[in-house]
Amino acid sequence: MRILTEQSMVMAVRLGAEVKDMIELSVVPVMKVLTMCALGTLLAQPKINIITPAATRLLSKLVFALFLPCLIFTELGGLMTFSNLAHWWFIPVNVLLSYFIGCIAGVIVALVCKPPARFFRFTVVMTGIGNAGNLPLAIVGSICHGQSHPFGKRCNQSGVAYVAFSQWVAVIVIYTFVYHMLEPPMDYYELVSEEAESDASVKGVDAAVASREAGESMPSVISAEWPDVRDAATEDSRTPLLARFFRNLSVSSQTSTVEGDSPRAIIRCLAEPRMVRKIRVVAEKTPIQHLMQPPIIASVMAILVGMFPSTNALLFGDDAVLGWFTDSLTILGAALVPCVMLVLGGTLSVGPGSSELGLRTTIGITVTRLVLLPPIGIGVVLFGCKLGVVPQGDKMFMFVLLLQHTMPTAILSGAMTSMRGYGEREASALLFWQHISSVVTIAVYIVIYLKIVSYL
């Protein structure tokens, strides 16, 4: 009896130690992120007014154009080799799989929750496209900042490198697939166009007042993470593609000389198959010029520099000739996580705002994105382990793969609503509620992921 009592006490102590370790590894990192966001919210309050709207915009531009590229270049470039590039191919594939599965789930959510007809594609995109940018970097940085993590000495470097390596495919998908999925419906576009023509004189009188009010208001979560996204919007991007397509057909058939079409071009268009021509028009109207943003440029440069041993040895390592340069970039990159969290807290302080999406659809998207899709992601990653596409023994690699299925909707997807001029209020409200809810869901799934990583 005494032996059984001693064994039960030992098991209870061991279980308590495991629970304590799990709390330290899962809840504590999320609490760190939440604390930084709370400080941003506190400093953005009107009575304190330290993080003002102007300061938020400036800080978000520094994060986007300086801190994030510096972090990506130093961490990704230091680990990038031809061998690693060959082993990391499943990272972007996992992102594509998460988007594909998420969009299928988004169709189901739209069919079940029945949002307004004009928000059907919006619901699919906001359910399917997860965040692959700043929030995973903040989670990885918070976990690696502790002492009891199981990811080794290169925890932060490898984690940032894996997350950065997945960003380029996410940006390509958003600027191609998501861009066209979020185009305004025909009836919505015609209604907005009529209202714009009738109110043209009023807008001309109130332009100065509106711009001043916009400058004094806190930016949304969308414009905070991807600044100047509104400046990329044009009349062409705010017009439905089908409307532009048929309008161009009618105009070119009547005024071909005005448009500068040569007889050879007309013959080519007539000889071109209809499906090929539609694909060509869609490709021409895709804003690929916006793909090369500072974080993507930093990723490309890190891959190119890291793959060549001569340039790698020149910039990275203890004996690097230009080590002082990369050390400077490392110092700047270290400011990313606190600045991002302060900006996020400041922008969330204004609340969710108005939305016409509907409560049932908002809950459906949030629950599906944060609760139902992560278990499916676990199955995808474990199946990849069985196939041998996940490097054995690299716990951070598997953790990042799992984390990619757990994030809320990508903020860049919301930025596309600003560029398209449609659904921006709904996207801002949805992102607000998802980021608030993700505090709990991410902490829970981190516990599950750490158990999976430790067993495998």
Automatic annotation (TrEMBL):
<feature type="transmembrane region" description="Helical">
    <location>
        <begin position="159"/>
        <end position="178"/>
    </location>
</feature>
<dbReference type="InterPro" id="IPR036259">
    <property type="entry name" value="MFS_trans_sf"/>
</dbReference>
<keyword id="KW-0472">Membrane</keyword>
<dbReference type="GO" id="GO:0080162">
    <property type="term" value="P:endoplasmic reticulum to cytosol auxin transport"/>
</dbReference>
<dbReference type="Pfam" id="PF03547">
    <property type="entry name" value="Mem_trans"/>
</dbReference>
<dbReference type="GO" id="GO:0016020">
    <property type="term" value="C:membrane"/>
</dbReference>
<dbReference type="GO" id="GO:0009734">
    <property type="term" value="P:auxin-activated signaling pathway"/>
</dbReference>
<feature type="transmembrane region" description="Helical">
    <location>
        <begin position="62"/>
        <end position="82"/>
    </location>
</feature>
<keyword id="KW-0927">Auxin signaling pathway</keyword>
<feature type="transmembrane region" description="Helical">
    <location>
        <begin position="396"/>
        <end position="417"/>
    </location>
</feature>
<protein>
    <recommendedName>
        <fullName>Auxin efflux carrier family protein</fullName>
    </recommendedName>
</protein>
<keyword id="KW-0812">Transmembrane</keyword>
<feature type="transmembrane region" description="Helical">
    <location>
        <begin position="329"/>
        <end position="350"/>
    </location>
</feature>
<feature type="transmembrane region" description="Helical">
    <location>
        <begin position="429"/>
        <end position="450"/>
    </location>
</feature>
<feature type="transmembrane region" description="Helical">
    <location>
        <begin position="370"/>
        <end position="390"/>
    </location>
</feature>
<dbReference type="InterPro" id="IPR004776">
    <property type="entry name" value="Mem_transp_PIN-like"/>
</dbReference>
<dbReference type="InterPro" id="IPR039305">
    <property type="entry name" value="PILS2/6"/>
</dbReference>
<keyword id="KW-1133">Transmembrane helix</keyword>
<feature type="transmembrane region" description="Helical">
    <location>
        <begin position="88"/>
        <end position="112"/>
    </location>
</feature>
<feature type="transmembrane region" description="Helical">
    <location>
        <begin position="296"/>
        <end position="317"/>
    </location>
</feature>
